[in-house]
Fold these 3 entries.
Entry 1:
Amino acid sequence: MSSEVFAFVPSYNHAPFIEKCLTSIIDQTLAPTKLLVIDDGSNDDSPAIIEKVLNRCPFDAELKVRENRGLCRTLNEAFSLSSGEYFAYIGSDDFWLPEFLESRSRLLDERATAVLGYGHASLVDPDGKVFDSTAAHTDDWANYPDGNARSMLLAGMAPISSTVFYRRTALEEVKWNEGSRLEDYEMYLNLMNRGDFAFDPQILSAWRLHDYNTSGDRILMLDEVIKAQNRNFDELGVDEKELEAIQSRTKFRYARMELQHGNKSAALRLARESWRGSASIGELSKFAIRMMVPMTIVEARRKARRIRRTTNASVNE
């Protein structure tokens, strides 16, 4: 395969995870033409660990260490230094499975109208142990489309960034918004009218969940989604009334998520703002009933589900 892939890792305070991340790139069945790592002002041992790993990298690899500038600015810097047909980046706490670059390159080689390729991801704990996957949630937040991604994005849902692989010519037309705290969602909005989102159902990457994930702050994520939609109103193809209804549905979905995680006060506040966004009276009634269920019962059920998923994941490895 002759596809040229530029791989990038934005590093920030992930010393316990960065070696696994970089090793997963070095072990790819299709080596990138270059690996660039920019350490964005880490105050832990990340730079030393990165330098040690890159010293044994068999292909062109470079480390840049500088002051903190934020993820979006770092992504724009990396892209300005990139070359080749494809651009792929992965957070320094996540990792790719060995065939990620080869499979994604093949996918976009075969899909000339696609601006990016994406797929499912394993969910791993801080120790790297698989406990779930996005493929187990296709009936809810991981119902990923192949082709037109507009409906998914308008609903406030998006691919997991560790699964995404970009065509460089598509990224040449846009930039990451350096004022956004949720870097990937607004980029997807900018790309959705420029070509297909090619979906591959394989699990080829891992999303590590730990205490410092931005995704753990769901209220922040919701706020950033709404702001991104408002900023990119002309790209959405809806009128103001339609967008208001879309955002109401999104807020109610986040209210349900807050309730699932035991944050009843936040759930109730969002539900009061967005109850018209519920799908039905039945959904509203279900929400109200769950508000009255003690969290001890909810946690017991959740623990049982986690055990089942972890057991199933272990069996399938």
Entry 2:
Amino acid sequence: MRILITGGAGFIGSHLAERLKRHGHEVQVIDLKIDGSDCRNIDLGTLHIWKEFGVVPEFIYHLAATVGVRKVLEDPKECIENNVESLRAVLGLGIPGIFASTSEVYGKTTGELSEDSELRYSSKPRWAYAASKLIGEHLARQAGWKTVRFFNVVGPRQNSDYGAVLPQFVSQAISGEPITVYGDGSQTRTFLDVRDCTAILDTLRDREFDVVNVGGGYHTTVRGLAEFVRDAVSSRSDIVHKTYESVYPKGFEECRERKPDLSKLRSLIGEFEYRNFHQTVTDLADSLKEKYEPVCR
């Protein structure tokens, strides 16, 4: 197939592009220029011109988005506008696709989260990203698209620029710096290796569904994650704690627990064998020692 990935030079997008190319698909990528690489920003309007030359994609993975807790808190308006308008432009092409949403849409709801769980959050800026993704889900559904809700996708080539906890911990551990845990560390998260994520995305392209949780692999407290990372990379770093107030701008709220109910995902793809999380951490550590520059053509 000819497949378009928006955000295709990013963390998940670049891994997905590599997998699809290995499986014989023709991959088209749209992304911003990143870290001095030769990835170029392509106006979504040019996609309409592609139809005249017979190179219009047959399927789209829409992964592009404004992300990062700090960035969202600093400019929630930009986050909402970018995420909603970019999706509207892509949906306007009339091509089938998958929209990348997030576990953030569940907000402060706790317990094992199913696709039908209540979505609960306040009007504080912290939840602007979640709100933009929820709007996106409604737009995608009206267009006949499928939606995946990612739960903490991690792995090689990920960095901590957008606030991701695992690359922050790994980077601190391999450099010998204190591993910094925000809050008391008892909050829980579920982590999914990016290579498992892209395998699931590849499979879901041919499945029929409206929205599904995509996660699993390793569930732990944040303090437990810090200890796991320290052991996995044989670090002697201390583990220290900081309050959220000392790290994030005003308006931040934390979710204490986030664990996906994956029964719907299993009904779509069957039982899935996740990567060993120790390998995920060591592969991420190796990638952080080298500068990765995504290349798209």
Entry 3:
Amino acid sequence: MPLGILGLVRWTCWFLRRIPASLYRPIGTGHHEALSVVVPVYQEAPAVFELAIHSWLVNRVAEVILVIDVTDKACLAVAQKFLRPATDAEPTKLRILPTDIPGKRDALRRGWNSATSPLVALVDSDTIWADDVAALVCEPFADPMVGGVGTRQNVYHAAGFWPRLADFYLDYRYFDEIAAQTVMGQAVSCLSGRTAIYRRDILMAIENDFMNERFLGVQCMSGDDKRLTSLTLAAGHRTVLQRSARVWSTFPDRFGPFLRQRIRWARNTWRSDLRALFGGWVWRYPFLAFTMVDKAVASVTLLFSAGFMVVAVVGRRWDVAGVLALWWLISRSAKSLPHLERRPRDLFMMPAFIMMGFLMAAVKLWALGTVRTQRWLTREVAVVDGVVVRTTPPPQVAAGSVASGSSP
């Protein structure tokens, strides 16, 4: 009976998201504005980075600004291959800004300060765009209240267990939570850093709060996308999903990096959501507040269900354990239909997806207990005495670094 009541509550919460999510439609206005692409680059796979640069340049963008860490010689060499001398007929689209300051936030700030367009796309260096992304993401900005726009995202070449698992989570997110938040109040909780488009004047206005974020007295280093989205919403602007604009990114193909990435994301979510819920501004967006609370309690309820299964197995109640396992399979498959329609063969991954759901619930609770920890986990940077520093010393920078828009 307790498990049945809990299941009824969880399904009610899911339907409260699923119904508006099913009503979502991409925004089509024909609106267009000049768009600058800003990319912080650090230890990216050169082959993927090259594909990504090409995908941005074939879009209708005003400029691509690559803020490249001076220690990343491989990516600097890749970027230099795309530099072309400017002419009156064809101005230079690509600019390179070398930086010796560690950390993604400062790179983003440098990029949008250098941008010349009213719209700025903040993009990860491994994110590959479809050919029409730049045109589609401009359309929601016809509404002057819209301050930020997100895209639909999937895993680039989702081969192997961990990338395919990440693809599961992405489809669930963009066909459920984010779509519903767009319909119910135009307040998306996080415009993912893989590709997020903002009005440049908003970025300039919130820059100081972004660069000086602290949580429980500790300087924040990661979570830049959640922070930017929260500051945009707190300032009274709207954030929406443009699901017709598609991008693809790489994801870890091993358990260790996959787990560390999830821990970092979970800590970022706890910090941002707790600040929003107790800070008060999120209650101006009731549906967004509901989804934040729902996500906060979901981990506890999911682990309760797993605990009930353990009790059934220990007590040799195989009938109860069998019914519960079958219910998990049916319910999780139903909630994953948008992904299974696109990749039907992933139905065979459902048992693993279910088990990983329990592990991720435990990870979220671990992240809550260690929420003050500020480590990137997948990058050689950390916060020491309130300052973002490298955990390995940078090499000596040669004189005559590449200047913005110049040839090597």
